[in-house]
From TrEMBL:
Domain HTH tetR-type: from-to ranges: 7-67
Keyword Repeat listed: no
Keyword DNA-binding included in the entry's annotation: yes
DNA-binding region residue numbers: 30-49
Keywords: DNA-binding, Transcription, Transcription regulation
PANTHER family: HTH-TYPE TRANSCRIPTIONAL REGULATOR YJDC, TRANSCRIPTIONAL REGULATORY PROTEIN
UniProt name for this protein: TetR/AcrR family transcriptional regulator
Gene3D superfamilies linked to this entry: Homeodomain-like (1.10.10.60), Tetracycline Repressor, domain 2 (1.10.357.10)
Length: 204
């Protein structure tokens, strides 16, 4: 089925916005540079999205939607903390190679000076926090580790860690330092196995 011209233009703009943001950064991304990459008139950025920021958020939404679908399937197979750490490492590497880290980091950086953008980023982080919380609850819920580190709090910590690692990746040219953090998590996870054993319920 052939897409309508308006739908096709929106798709081209979203794809071009993602490419431009990854290549030029937020400071170098404008209606003109996005339109040039999409090979359309820059006025169409405002016609379809109302501005550059809404278009960039649409590009982030598209990337997040695709990643959420893929990662829900990936973590569904994880049954232990070790397996979860392994999947998390794979997710980090996939996000890095796919450019999602750059999309997210650039918009977070831009939101420091733009409160309206900050609110939108926070809103988009919430589904990921909930996703991580549900996953942790499934894997470690009811265990001593969950009592020590509640899944909701650990989900917030995971997002904070993810963002910090993503930003530091830009300074870590060979990725050796960031990779060492995941290697550390892989070494610690087996040692925390006893803390993930679910406690038997007390009889009344």
């Amino acid at each position: 089925m052939t897409k309508q011209p308006g739908v096709e233009t929106r798709e081209r703009l979203i794809e071009a916005a993602a490419r431009t943001l990854r290549a030029e950064g937020y400071a170098g991304t404008s209606a003109r540079t996005i339109a040039k990459a999409a090979e359309v008139n820059s006025a169409l950025v405002f016609y379809h999205f109302g501005g550059v920021d809404p278009l960039l958020l649409a590009a982030l939404d598209r990337s997040s939607e695709q990643r959420m679908a893929a990662y829900q399937e990936a973590v569904a197979e994880a049954r232990t903390l070790e397996e979860l750490v392994e999947v998390a490492t794979q997710i980090y590497r996939a996000d890095l190679e796919g450019g999602h880290i750059t999309l997210f980091a650039e918009l977070v950086g831009a939101s420091i000076a733009r409160p309206e953008l900050r609110e939108e980023i926070v809103k988009r982080a919430e589904p990921w926090i909930s996703f991580i919380e549900r996953t942790l609850e499934r894997v470690i819920g009811g265990s001593p580790l969950a009592k020590l580190l509640p899944p909701r709090d650990l989900a917030y910590a995971s997002i904070t860690f993810y963002l910090g690692v993503n930003l530091f990746t830009h300074l870590d040219a060979d990725r050796s330092r960031t990779e060492s953090l995941f290697a550390l998590a892989e070494r610690v996870a087996p040692r925390a196995k006893l803390l993930t054993v679910r406690l038997p319920r007390r009889r009344p």
